[in-house]
Design brief:
4 copies of one chain form a homotetramer.
Chain A (H helix, E strand, L loop, with lengths): L2 E9 L5 E8 L4 E5 L6 H16 L7 H11 L6 H21 L16 E9 L2 H13 L4 E6 L20 E2 L5 E4 L1 H19 L4 E5 L6 H10 L7 E3 L9 H8 L4 E3 L10 H5 L5 E2 L9 H13 L3 E4 L7 H13 L5 E3 L5 H6 E3 L2 E3 L2 E3 L8 E3 L1 H5 L6 E2 L2 E4 L4 E2 L2
Parallel strand pairs in A: 4-5, 4-13, 5-8, 7-19, 8-9, 9-10, 10-11, 11-12, 12-13
Antiparallel strand pairs in A: 1-2, 2-3, 4-16, 6-18, 14-17, 15-16, 19-20
Helix pairs in contact in A: 1-3, 2-3, 4-5, 5-6, 6-7
Chain lengths: 402, 402, 402, 402
């Protein structure tokens, strides 16, 4: 089989997505997700201008060789743009191979390791009361695991809390919205929030929380410690992890499980975190992590250190990436949980999927490949609109981690 | 002062360059280099589609805040595409500030720390004899430091050796050229090469060598050890450095000085290498390292650990980056050496520079800012042509580091 | 531009200050602060007898080279006298450069990274009740952050608590006052103090505390742990830090943030504290840390490790150092907080400043350079009077850390 | 007994010395050496302006308490100026106590641990031949251990080599002499030098060499390795030791014994070097190390790690310090060697000593105290003349370690 073409399609059915379609001389094609929220065009250009012509004529079954060709052959390695472009190609190649062999993708990755895949979703509110209420509401929808974020007293606009019905941090505009932040106010509030939430919902539900890289290691350690009695499933992105040893301090002080990785793009971003047992969940998502090929290796390394997966999965990655995560999660032994926020109807109209979600769990059927279809015609009716994730400033104006 | 516009210009006067021009309401403008060899369009798209509108209206003097705005504000951090885009903006902003204050850029970075800046260039040959001859020829041109690469007996085409008069690894075509490799043949040959070269040129010339990421740590350790008596200035890219602790093995076995970093984009790519004293030269170049702002921080960290700079500087980065490296190098105490291969005449016609090169050394004059002009009209006569760096395979076909 | 002279001026408008004035052939001059409380004359002699003649004729813009000339050229490196002398020269040179270029100093250090700079001041009392009262009073003055020190039951005279209206530990006399100390009494009392203070002032104010080097690591660990629920902004000088690894024990036991550094003079005094993430705030002040040149490097290193600045700034450093700290703090991303105790009126009469303080925050205007003037004539009316910081003994007479 | 006065006397009999005389109500007085080459006046001011009045009335026998009073009571700790001032006081107090008890000082430090104390001196020459000749000459004078330094081919003026008969790096002038340096040229030459020297003088003489802080760790490692077969007694100041872990790299590569410490002023400057067994000789000298009191503790720590002493002892410290080093060396078990360059006649006229030097060894007699007299009258005929140690620049003008 030979690759005959690669198409990069950008659409905005509710939000922006970059989709890759790899075509072959046998008629089988594969889909990949190349969405990098707020930097879509850079990935699209990387694919169109630099990768497409390299792939024509290659045998799409050679996933390992092609991945190395793109990763090592780029010379300039790593980083979100590069790895998302490679990831989209790799996902599409695995889609092709499993379609060609007429099996669901997970069969090529080791078969079925479980029946269903637990997901967590988001609950949020402008204040404590509203947030507790939303947690209850989300629990009643059947979710077994809920990420809880709330407005912070004294702060106008905070990550994870939306005015709109569906949460979407990226805003369509010519520049990022500026939010504000006070770690002191946040740290004061969060333990109270979880005290109230846990009291309301009882022990029989997983609660998660995302600190979104904003804390220093010692602040994260304090938070982890003060949340211990509420038994979180995980505390996410407790500190920015560019230096992985920042997590040593946190780990030393608290038994709250730690999750990190939505901004990672390669095993090298988390290798130390793993071999020193500094985390409990690795949150790289398939598209941003460079595809199925490297994610299998990363999950393998994680398994040696009792680390489970917890793939990043907000609505800013398309259902193609969601499907890739689910097949990946189905096959490995150390699956943990999958983030899931649902999709707006326009998105669902463009991307139709065979995976099913019900009662807090995903299931996969026997559809070959990823089991996702992309309606190119409909997609064209939703042209790209520039959007940005917010930026974040401290109260004195200091540029801070968002 | 306010930024009024950002232009991204791609041209190919001999080879491809991406140039950023930031304009202000006071008429002062700044230039930055955004060239990422073989991935030019991705950086251009990153800048045009995602950064331009964020910068309009900003005070160009706020380099630290803008850098953090672009770095932290991207959310998806690090990597060559992102950091080269940010680097180009940062260089242009420093160009603006030093032009506005009517001083050469180095004055804003600490003033003059030396009179002149030593450079090294490349010598090469298809075999040992031709290489020795070229080293002698290059030495006679006045160079004090020469990187020596050679064809390897039994290998058809090897990194660092060119058929053409001027060495240029990137080839204008629709896909990468494939070269081949045998570490065994290479390791057998290189000590003989340096024995012959050192014998021919004597002790009074700096010899450098680039292993181009192709060795395992223990192979690199063997090579470093076998080269000790030829007293290399440095052994470059001894192993691929994605895991920085790979260098511990090399360091343990040899006193040959080690240089690395042309593929690094942030301090986090070399932090461990530095604090463990594992390297002697950090080779990040200003444009790829995210600009003047982070490079000053990186050089400072390096200085605590006896590490000097040795900026990557082949012809695939434009004279704008070269000027940025020279001003940076002029100001810091721990300047080491600058790579320099000259530029084709077409390039020199588009980019006119105030820095001078003679007798193995660069000098800077009192021109304000970077001291580089870009002839936009002439540049347009050299339209972009797709080009790729080669890829590399072992003799059995295994995809290998190039 | 050439340096034509260096004047060292010692005056005592309320307290002793050593001021350096560097003059140039262009009429521009720069001011530096060389005050080392209780050791003023040693620094003055270092400058007058050993540095002045070295600087005449040098280009004042060459800050990096001159700094290295003074630091490496001294041969006998580091320590408070040497580094304060060098620091004063470096501050004056940066004052010259920014005045000559007609920009506020922060513009040469990266521009504005925030709008305003939070400060903390001191509250104190002879006992718990008086201290709580003073905290409330200070809070009502608009301070957002308050360092709380108190008399300890059973101890006659303790650091940080003054009989006089304005706190000033240095006493004008022929030898140091002797205070007394009991770590046991202190450790018993402090948690009660903070319990009472936090109860009184609520969560919305930053509380700081200074243990002033008097505890062993394990005592500091106990204190940090017992203060955790009062959420200190920082615990300062938890133990004497001559061996930096003393902080490992403290760090292991408590999430109370740690600040240290007012007695440090070089990056080598805190390098291990930083790279092991053992502290959260580095408290070196610009004058004692060797000036702007090294402090920028130190702040950069700190930034990689989530460490913020918190410059030492009691009234025993002149408004020149305060201005240097503020410009430095304005430019860097990882500014934390600035210590500020105000100045007696006589001091304000001699040193007029363009920085403003209101409502707990400093602001800077567009005045070029540091924005500080020194009235030489008025200064001469306040001649130097010998003064000493106290010494400290345990109840059995053992000489202890003050 | 009470201290009644402290006199600080600066004289220049051949070179500058700062001498402290502490007087008591019993008529016994003590002498201390406060010389800090090129920074004499700063130490003198530290003593006169800040320490004198604190000591009046104290019991001079309380050496431990007074040392802590001066060290901890200064608040601003460490560094050459502070520690040399304290060191001079401490030496004078021990001189008083041993004179009052009518015993040689070593009796108070543990008595006699050996009969005689081996010294090393300097040999030097403008080139290899001259240096070999001088080594032979020095050997014939009876020295058992010789530090060998030589002019380097291609460098005009190098540390350790003098035009004058007696070697003296400090030059009387208004600013430092500038020397130049090339590590490459130095490293090329030194192994050849030692090959020639060892061949000439045979195995039965100790050869030492001083790299004077100019090498990076890896360069020092190379040098140590290439000198191994010449069996050096030690390689001194292999790299600047502000970060002590720089010595790990050197230690890893070579068995050449390592000595360091002439610029250290406290145990904290070498604690890591000791507890990690990174050095073999600690070269702190008594006056600069803060006196007899701390040096006994430092020698004790050294003894746990098989480290011997090798006190810095060029002619820029007075015979008072030399006597202090010898009494100290006589008493401890882990004495190694003493540097000794002799003194010009003028110096010997001012300072008369009871220690004897003959045949490569020092001996001490039964004179009480240090056994040194200072002729105040004669000293006054040699007034202070400003002098500086040189500074050092690389060939491109970079300020380098001298």
């Amino acid at each position: 089989m030979k690759i005959t073409g690669l198409k990069v399609m950008v659409c905005s059915p509710g939000r922006n997505f970059v989709t890759v379609k790899i075509e072959t001389d046998k008629g089988v094609f594969g889909l990949g997700d190349a969405t990098l929220n707020g930097r879509e065009k850079a990935v699209a250009a990387y694919l169109e201008s630099h990768l497409t012509s390299c792939l024509i004529g290659r045998d799409p079954f050679d996933t390992e060789d092609i991945w190395n060709y793109l990763y090592k052959g780029a010379y300039w390695r790593r980083g979100p743009v590069t790895m998302t472009a490679i990831g989209a190609v790799d996902i599409a190649l695995w889609d092709i191979k499993s379609k060609a062999l007429e099996v669901p993708l997970y069969q090529l990755l080791g078969g079925k390791s479980r029946n269903r895949l637990m997901a967590y979703t988001h609950a949020q509110g402008q204040d404590l009361a509203e947030t507790v209420e939303d947690v209850v509401a989300v629990k009643e929808q059947g979710f077994r695991a809920i990420r809880v974020q709330s407005g912070i007293p004294g702060l106008k606009k905070v990550y994870g809390v939306s005015d709109k019905e569906s949460y979407e941090p990226a805003v369509k505009s010519s520049r990022p919205v500026e939010e504000n932040w006070s770690t002191a106010k946040y740290l004061e509030f969060i333990p109270k929030l979880f005290s109230a939430v846990r009291k309301e919902v009882g022990a029989d539900i997983h609660l998660l929380h995302d600190a979104h890289h904003r804390l220093s290691p010692i602040e994260a350690a304090r938070l982890g410690k003060e949340l211990e009695s509420y038994h979180l499933y995980w505390l996410e992105d407790a500190t920015a992890a560019e230096l992985q040893d920042r997590f040593r301090i946190i780990r030393q002080h608290t038994t709250t499980p730690l999750a990190v990785g939505e901004v990672f793009n390669s095993v090298y971003d988390c290798h130390q975190l793993m071999i020193e047992h500094l985390i409990d969940y690795i949150r790289m998502t398939v598209a941003h992590g460079g595809g199925i090929t490297p994610m299998m290796k990363i999950a393998n390394l994680a398994s040696f250190h009792n680390i489970k997966t917890g793939c990043h999965g907000p609505s800013d990655l398309s259902p193609i990436n969601m499907a890739a995560c689910l097949h990946f999660g189905m096959a490995i032994n150390n699956y943990g949980i999958q983030e899931y926020m649902g999709y707006p109807q326009e998105t669902a109209d463009v991307f139709s999927t065979s995976y099913k979600f019900a009662d807090g769990y995903f299931t996969l059927d026997e559809s070959p490949g990823l089991g996702v279809n992309y309606d190119e015609k409909k997609a064209k009716t939703f042209p790209y609109e520039k959007a940005y994730l917010p930026i974040n400033r401290l109260e004195d104006g200091t540029l801070w981690d968002w």
